[in-house]
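Handout, section 4.2: multi-component inputs.
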Amino acid sequence: MIQKLIKRIVKTDAPVVVGLDPMLSYIPPFLLEKAFSEQGETLEGAAQAVWEYNKGLVDSFCDLVPAVKPQIAMYEQFGLPGLAVYKKTVDYCHEKGLIVIGDVKRGDIGSTSAAYAAAHLGRVQVGSRSCPVFDEDFATVNPYLGTDGIQPFLDVCGQEGKGIFVLAKTSNPSSGEFQDRLIDGRPLYELVGEKIASWGSGLMEDGYSEVGAVVGATYPEVGKVLRELMPHTFILVPGYGAQGGKGSDLKVFFHQDGLGALVNSSRGIIAAWKQEKYAPSSPEGYGEAARKAVLDMTADLRAARFS
Amino acid sequence: MIQKLIKRIVKTDAPVVVGLDPMLSYIPPFLLEKAFSEQGETLEGAAQAVWEYNKGLVDSFCDLVPAVKPQIAMYEQFGLPGLAVYKKTVDYCHEKGLIVIGDVKRGDIGSTSAAYAAAHLGRVQVGSRSCPVFDEDFATVNPYLGTDGIQPFLDVCGQEGKGIFVLAKTSNPSSGEFQDRLIDGRPLYELVGEKIASWGSGLMEDGYSEVGAVVGATYPEVGKVLRELMPHTFILVPGYGAQGGKGSDLKVFFHQDGLGALVNSSRGIIAAWKQEKYAPSSPEGYGEAARKAVLDMTADLRAARFS
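Output:
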């Protein structure tokens, strides 16, 4: 899957992934009103609004970017109707030719991780049939439980030709509390980075492994270290834009050929219509606003990568 | 919620939580056959089998234990029908008077953790209405992202009178890979333990906080250290039985009054019917087998706690 992702990045010339993290406050009021009038102020109503909003967004930028990253928490908060829209969004993005990174941050002991891996990347055996479930292309995974919590994901990646991105250094302010602590003189995120490289060593395809790493845009100095430490690891970089990461800081996450990293923006794109800069002339223009924000982000990153 | 849990533990004299982690291989064939004949070998069929199995289990032991711990991965692997059964199981256990610990191991950056906290312990705002979602009593949480990933859970626990159990030292063989690494001469799990104690300090109720810790039964020496380091923290102890933890090792997880810990067993109870010792005379007896296994586990722990 990593080579499929790289091909799309090269084709779009955009190492950009759009985070489909639909807070209700990002959704234009006309969509909320329509959904609530049809379904009431219920989980079903919220889910319908999210679905229509997502559809408009994806239609607006699907030719510009290689991938989307739906954050499952934003769907899980609307219960079963929300999770049904998560699945519908995954399928719709696939129809539109997008690669889907399920931002699920799952991770548990072995037998439980095996269930998560089946749920998100593989198939589950039911009697004599093996059934696909959520069926994303990549999933994000938490490393706190160590190798035996990761192995079931590696097994499924090998069988299904899919990939994972493992959290190394997250973009949030408190990420250093544990991740930066020194172990034998080196921060924990470096140890995790080394493990990520080793977990990926059996899943290599043309110079990159199916096991990527998550490293926040908000910590470019860490990105520089981990880029060198894990030369064959693709880096998923959250935290651009609304969380504070700037294009000019991100060069260090890329190799000299401009590959090796994929930068996520969520709010900055999907809620672009709320910014004065992108304010649309009619409420229906929220997709057009997102499209403009994608183009600006792509230009910003292009300048940074080859500066 | 922690005091409600303690009251039930005292009433049942059983510091036991049953892990409702339904693998299809644990479900008696007659239930699978019935479900598959009605729904086919589909996610719906699997979910129906899980639901009927769970109902029989819960009916068999609900008077003996204070709590259950459904592992959401085992439901998520069956997609939306599986997650519908997760919710149905949570509600059914509540009807039967059980406390429900959602073993979800969620954890993310602040705004995302807020969505998970709403989904599992709180309510989500939809227009003018605030809707409960999965509505467990406790949830398990991963600490890797640090305080700002935990804070939204603390906020919801404060508002709703609920609780969390944060992973400190997990029961799996690889847990030491990161969790045991020394930082200033002390293992990471101790640092996490200290944070857990401090996260709970604002949510105290009669000597215990709403913020518990997960410490694996398979590492009693760690349990001893963490029991002393976090005197006001309730410890959820997975790994008893099938994973290798023995009652006689578990005394160290408890305070001298026999409180302070809750021991989980999953396979050892819910798949007890597969053990020769508990083999039922008819297939429908799987619940009775589970009941016997609960009684044996309770006796084993009772002996250990006060030995």
